[in-house]
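Researcher: Go.
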Amino acid sequence: MTESPRWFKSSYSENGGACVEVAVNLVASRGVVPVRDSKVQDGPVLDVPVAAFSSFVASVKRGR
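Model: Structure:
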């Protein structure tokens, strides 16, 4: 049985719709964080390796 992504948007994304959704429930089973455009939910999905996604989030947090 293949696990499906459980998509969510950040609570900070109330900016008029220009945001992405992520599905962190696939980290353990696939080692990736799927990312998609929240406005085009049936569009392409980018599978970002966990280490790269973690590095991205840490960089964003340091930039505040």
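Model: The chain is about 25% helix and 20% strand.
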